[in-house]
Design a protein that fits this description.
Layout lengths: L11 E8 L6 H14 L5 E3 L10 H6 L1 H4 E3 L12 H10 L2 E9 L5 E8 L5 E6 L7 H4 L8 E4 L2 E5 L8 H9 L4 E6 L6 H15 L2 E9 L6 E2 L3 E3 L5 E4 L6 E7 L1 H10 L2 H4 L14
Parallel strand pairs: 1-2, 1-10, 2-4, 3-4, 8-9, 9-10
Antiparallel strand pairs: 1-14, 4-5, 5-6, 7-8, 10-11, 10-12, 12-13
Helix pairs in contact: 1-4, 6-7
Length: 284
Protein backbone atom coordinates (compact mmCIF):
# COMPACT_ATOMS: atom_id res chain seq x y z
CA UNK A 1 0.00 0.00 0.00
CA UNK A 2 1.26 3.47 -0.89
CA UNK A 3 0.79 6.24 1.66
CA UNK A 4 -0.84 9.17 -0.12
CA UNK A 5 0.82 12.57 0.06
CA UNK A 6 -1.27 15.53 1.17
CA UNK A 7 -2.93 17.10 -1.83
CA UNK A 8 -1.54 20.40 -3.12
CA UNK A 9 -3.45 23.43 -1.95
CA UNK A 10 -3.63 25.24 -5.30
CA UNK A 11 -3.69 24.49 -9.05
CA UNK A 12 -0.38 24.66 -10.90
CA UNK A 13 0.20 25.71 -14.51
CA UNK A 14 2.68 23.59 -16.49
CA UNK A 15 3.98 23.53 -20.05
CA UNK A 16 5.24 20.67 -22.23
CA UNK A 17 7.47 21.77 -25.11
CA UNK A 18 8.22 20.17 -28.45
CA UNK A 19 11.16 21.69 -30.29
CA UNK A 20 13.96 21.03 -32.79
CA UNK A 21 17.37 21.81 -31.28
CA UNK A 22 20.50 22.15 -33.44
CA UNK A 23 23.03 19.33 -32.95
CA UNK A 24 25.98 20.46 -30.89
CA UNK A 25 24.84 24.08 -30.39
CA UNK A 26 24.35 24.22 -26.63
CA UNK A 27 24.42 28.03 -26.46
CA UNK A 28 22.03 28.47 -29.39
CA UNK A 29 19.65 25.83 -28.07
CA UNK A 30 19.66 27.44 -24.62
CA UNK A 31 18.71 30.76 -26.22
CA UNK A 32 15.93 29.11 -28.23
CA UNK A 33 14.78 27.30 -25.10
CA UNK A 34 14.56 30.61 -23.27
CA UNK A 35 12.25 31.90 -26.01
CA UNK A 36 10.06 28.80 -25.58
CA UNK A 37 9.93 29.28 -21.82
CA UNK A 38 8.74 32.82 -22.53
CA UNK A 39 5.95 31.42 -24.70
CA UNK A 40 4.75 29.39 -21.71
CA UNK A 41 3.40 32.63 -20.22
CA UNK A 42 4.76 32.25 -16.71
CA UNK A 43 3.91 28.56 -16.25
CA UNK A 44 5.35 27.42 -12.94
CA UNK A 45 6.91 24.31 -14.54
CA UNK A 46 8.19 24.13 -18.12
CA UNK A 47 9.56 20.85 -19.50
CA UNK A 48 11.86 20.77 -22.56
CA UNK A 49 12.86 17.59 -24.46
CA UNK A 50 15.47 14.94 -23.70
CA UNK A 51 19.04 16.03 -24.53
CA UNK A 52 17.59 19.34 -25.70
CA UNK A 53 20.74 21.35 -25.01
CA UNK A 54 23.11 19.34 -27.25
CA UNK A 55 20.25 17.79 -29.32
CA UNK A 56 19.57 14.07 -29.46
CA UNK A 57 22.03 13.39 -32.28
CA UNK A 58 24.35 10.47 -31.44
CA UNK A 59 26.98 11.21 -34.12
CA UNK A 60 27.53 14.69 -32.67
CA UNK A 61 27.37 13.45 -29.07
CA UNK A 62 30.05 10.86 -29.89
CA UNK A 63 32.30 13.19 -31.89
CA UNK A 64 32.34 16.24 -29.59
CA UNK A 65 31.69 15.38 -25.93
CA UNK A 66 33.62 18.43 -24.76
CA UNK A 67 31.35 20.71 -26.76
CA UNK A 68 28.07 18.94 -26.09
CA UNK A 69 28.36 18.23 -22.36
CA UNK A 70 27.79 20.46 -19.36
CA UNK A 71 29.87 19.90 -16.22
CA UNK A 72 28.31 19.25 -12.81
CA UNK A 73 30.13 19.57 -9.51
CA UNK A 74 29.92 17.03 -6.69
CA UNK A 75 26.61 18.48 -5.52
CA UNK A 76 25.12 18.45 -9.01
CA UNK A 77 25.41 22.21 -9.51
CA UNK A 78 26.00 23.41 -13.06
CA UNK A 79 27.72 26.72 -13.72
CA UNK A 80 27.89 27.09 -17.50
CA UNK A 81 27.55 30.55 -19.10
CA UNK A 82 25.95 28.99 -22.17
CA UNK A 83 22.84 28.44 -20.02
CA UNK A 84 22.47 32.08 -19.01
CA UNK A 85 19.45 32.69 -21.30
CA UNK A 86 17.57 29.84 -19.60
CA UNK A 87 18.48 31.21 -16.18
CA UNK A 88 17.12 34.61 -17.19
CA UNK A 89 13.92 33.11 -18.63
CA UNK A 90 13.30 31.14 -15.43
CA UNK A 91 13.80 34.27 -13.33
CA UNK A 92 11.63 36.44 -15.58
CA UNK A 93 8.78 33.92 -15.71
CA UNK A 94 8.99 32.70 -12.12
CA UNK A 95 9.32 29.25 -13.70
CA UNK A 96 11.08 26.02 -12.85
CA UNK A 97 12.53 24.72 -16.12
CA UNK A 98 13.34 21.05 -16.65
CA UNK A 99 15.65 20.62 -19.63
CA UNK A 100 17.52 17.64 -21.08
CA UNK A 101 21.32 17.70 -21.16
CA UNK A 102 24.42 15.56 -21.48
CA UNK A 103 26.21 15.88 -18.14
CA UNK A 104 29.78 15.07 -17.17
CA UNK A 105 30.19 14.30 -13.46
CA UNK A 106 33.34 14.73 -11.35
CA UNK A 107 33.85 10.94 -11.21
CA UNK A 108 33.95 10.77 -15.02
CA UNK A 109 30.44 9.45 -15.54
CA UNK A 110 28.57 10.85 -18.53
CA UNK A 111 24.80 10.81 -18.22
CA UNK A 112 21.62 11.77 -20.02
CA UNK A 113 20.20 14.10 -17.42
CA UNK A 114 17.37 16.43 -16.52
CA UNK A 115 18.68 19.80 -15.42
CA UNK A 116 16.44 21.87 -13.18
CA UNK A 117 16.71 25.63 -13.58
CA UNK A 118 14.99 27.22 -10.59
CA UNK A 119 13.25 30.62 -10.50
CA UNK A 120 16.32 32.14 -8.82
CA UNK A 121 18.47 31.06 -11.79
CA UNK A 122 20.27 28.17 -10.10
CA UNK A 123 20.95 25.06 -12.19
CA UNK A 124 21.35 21.52 -10.92
CA UNK A 125 21.70 18.13 -12.58
CA UNK A 126 18.62 16.80 -10.79
CA UNK A 127 18.17 13.34 -12.33
CA UNK A 128 20.20 10.96 -14.51
CA UNK A 129 18.33 8.63 -16.86
CA UNK A 130 18.26 5.12 -15.39
CA UNK A 131 16.95 3.11 -18.35
CA UNK A 132 19.28 3.65 -21.30
CA UNK A 133 17.94 2.76 -24.71
CA UNK A 134 19.87 0.91 -27.42
CA UNK A 135 23.03 2.75 -28.53
CA UNK A 136 22.80 5.21 -25.63
CA UNK A 137 24.71 2.61 -23.63
CA UNK A 138 27.76 3.16 -25.84
CA UNK A 139 27.89 6.88 -24.97
CA UNK A 140 26.40 7.23 -21.50
CA UNK A 141 26.30 5.74 -18.03
CA UNK A 142 23.01 4.81 -16.37
CA UNK A 143 21.70 6.87 -13.49
CA UNK A 144 21.83 5.38 -10.02
CA UNK A 145 18.72 6.70 -8.31
CA UNK A 146 15.34 8.30 -8.81
CA UNK A 147 14.46 11.88 -7.96
CA UNK A 148 11.43 13.91 -6.92
CA UNK A 149 11.09 17.62 -7.62
CA UNK A 150 8.89 19.75 -5.35
CA UNK A 151 7.39 22.94 -6.80
CA UNK A 152 5.13 24.82 -4.41
CA UNK A 153 3.50 21.82 -2.71
CA UNK A 154 3.30 19.67 -5.84
CA UNK A 155 5.59 16.61 -5.95
CA UNK A 156 6.89 15.45 -9.35
CA UNK A 157 8.82 12.31 -10.15
CA UNK A 158 11.47 12.85 -12.81
CA UNK A 159 11.85 10.44 -15.73
CA UNK A 160 13.52 10.63 -19.13
CA UNK A 161 12.03 8.97 -22.24
CA UNK A 162 12.73 5.20 -22.00
CA UNK A 163 12.30 5.35 -18.22
CA UNK A 164 8.60 5.90 -18.86
CA UNK A 165 8.33 2.60 -20.74
CA UNK A 166 8.80 0.76 -17.43
CA UNK A 167 5.77 0.75 -15.11
CA UNK A 168 8.12 0.31 -12.15
CA UNK A 169 9.69 3.70 -12.79
CA UNK A 170 6.45 5.62 -12.63
CA UNK A 171 5.36 3.53 -9.63
CA UNK A 172 8.59 4.41 -7.81
CA UNK A 173 7.62 8.07 -8.26
CA UNK A 174 4.13 7.34 -6.89
CA UNK A 175 5.69 5.47 -3.97
CA UNK A 176 7.57 8.70 -3.22
CA UNK A 177 4.17 10.42 -3.06
CA UNK A 178 4.32 12.06 -6.49
CA UNK A 179 1.33 14.00 -7.76
CA UNK A 180 2.88 14.11 -11.24
CA UNK A 181 5.64 12.77 -13.48
CA UNK A 182 7.82 14.96 -15.71
CA UNK A 183 9.31 13.26 -18.77
CA UNK A 184 11.67 15.00 -21.21
CA UNK A 185 11.80 12.63 -24.19
CA UNK A 186 13.05 11.98 -27.71
CA UNK A 187 10.66 9.73 -29.66
CA UNK A 188 11.58 9.00 -33.26
CA UNK A 189 9.15 9.17 -36.17
CA UNK A 190 7.22 5.93 -36.46
CA UNK A 191 6.75 5.50 -32.71
CA UNK A 192 3.59 7.56 -32.21
CA UNK A 193 1.51 4.61 -30.99
CA UNK A 194 3.96 3.81 -28.21
CA UNK A 195 4.57 7.48 -27.44
CA UNK A 196 0.86 8.07 -26.86
CA UNK A 197 0.31 4.84 -24.91
CA UNK A 198 3.19 4.72 -22.43
CA UNK A 199 2.71 8.08 -20.74
CA UNK A 200 -1.06 7.93 -20.64
CA UNK A 201 -0.66 4.51 -19.01
CA UNK A 202 1.80 5.84 -16.45
CA UNK A 203 -0.74 8.53 -15.56
CA UNK A 204 -3.58 6.05 -15.10
CA UNK A 205 -1.41 3.38 -13.41
CA UNK A 206 -0.51 5.82 -10.70
CA UNK A 207 -3.42 8.31 -10.79
CA UNK A 208 -1.00 11.20 -11.33
CA UNK A 209 -0.50 13.93 -13.90
CA UNK A 210 2.16 13.40 -16.59
CA UNK A 211 3.98 16.17 -18.46
CA UNK A 212 5.61 14.73 -21.59
CA UNK A 213 7.97 16.88 -23.68
CA UNK A 214 9.42 15.63 -26.96
CA UNK A 215 11.79 16.58 -29.75
CA UNK A 216 10.19 17.19 -33.15
CA UNK A 217 11.24 17.15 -36.82
CA UNK A 218 14.94 17.01 -37.80
CA UNK A 219 16.61 14.89 -40.48
CA UNK A 220 16.40 11.10 -40.88
CA UNK A 221 17.40 8.87 -39.19
CA UNK A 222 17.14 11.30 -36.25
CA UNK A 223 13.70 12.69 -37.05
CA UNK A 224 11.37 13.07 -34.08
CA UNK A 225 7.61 13.04 -33.82
CA UNK A 226 6.44 15.71 -31.38
CA UNK A 227 3.13 14.90 -29.70
CA UNK A 228 4.13 16.68 -26.49
CA UNK A 229 1.31 16.36 -23.99
CA UNK A 230 -0.04 16.87 -20.51
CA UNK A 231 -2.12 13.93 -19.24
CA UNK A 232 -4.64 14.01 -16.42
CA UNK A 233 -4.61 11.33 -13.68
CA UNK A 234 -6.88 9.08 -15.76
CA UNK A 235 -4.51 9.25 -18.73
CA UNK A 236 -6.57 11.67 -20.82
CA UNK A 237 -4.70 14.42 -22.68
CA UNK A 238 -5.39 17.91 -21.37
CA UNK A 239 -3.19 19.26 -24.19
CA UNK A 240 -1.29 17.57 -27.01
CA UNK A 241 0.91 18.83 -29.83
CA UNK A 242 0.92 17.77 -33.47
CA UNK A 243 3.44 15.29 -34.89
CA UNK A 244 5.38 18.10 -36.57
CA UNK A 245 6.21 21.69 -35.70
CA UNK A 246 7.46 23.52 -32.64
CA UNK A 247 4.86 24.05 -29.92
CA UNK A 248 4.34 24.90 -26.26
CA UNK A 249 1.41 23.06 -24.65
CA UNK A 250 0.11 24.75 -21.50
CA UNK A 251 -2.30 23.13 -19.02
CA UNK A 252 -3.37 23.55 -15.41
CA UNK A 253 -3.02 20.75 -12.88
CA UNK A 254 -6.03 20.74 -10.56
CA UNK A 255 -5.76 19.24 -7.04
CA UNK A 256 -9.54 18.72 -6.95
CA UNK A 257 -9.38 16.56 -10.09
CA UNK A 258 -6.45 14.65 -8.59
CA UNK A 259 -8.45 14.02 -5.40
CA UNK A 260 -11.55 12.92 -7.32
CA UNK A 261 -9.56 10.50 -9.47
CA UNK A 262 -7.80 8.95 -6.50
CA UNK A 263 -11.11 8.58 -4.67
CA UNK A 264 -12.70 6.82 -7.65
CA UNK A 265 -9.69 4.73 -8.71
CA UNK A 266 -7.91 3.43 -5.63
CA UNK A 267 -5.09 1.39 -7.20
CA UNK A 268 -2.40 3.04 -5.09
CA UNK A 269 -4.23 2.28 -1.85
CA UNK A 270 -5.32 -1.21 -2.93
CA UNK A 271 -1.99 -2.46 -4.30
CA UNK A 272 -0.74 -5.56 -2.51
CA UNK A 273 2.70 -5.30 -0.89
CA UNK A 274 3.73 -8.25 -3.06
CA UNK A 275 2.08 -10.70 -5.42
CA UNK A 276 2.06 -13.61 -2.99
CA UNK A 277 3.95 -16.89 -2.77
CA UNK A 278 5.54 -18.53 -5.86
CA UNK A 279 3.14 -18.64 -8.76
CA UNK A 280 1.03 -21.66 -9.60
CA UNK A 281 1.59 -23.17 -13.07
CA UNK A 282 -1.40 -24.84 -14.74
CA UNK A 283 -1.20 -27.00 -17.84
CA UNK A 284 -4.19 -27.58 -20.08
Amino acid sequence: MTEAAPLPARPLTVAAVQATPVPGDVAGNAAAGARLVGRAGGARVVVLPELYLPAYHPPTLAADPAGTDVLADGDGRVDDPRLDPLRAAARDGGSTVVVGAAVRHPDGRRTISALVVDPAGGVRAAYDKQQLWSGERELFDAGRRGATLVVDDWRFGLGICYDGCFPEHGRAAADDQAHGYLCPSGYLAGSAHRRDLYYAARALDNTMYVVFANAVDGADPWRFNGGAAVYDPEGRPLARGADTGEDVLVATLDPAALAATRAAHTMLADRLPDQGLPRTTLRA
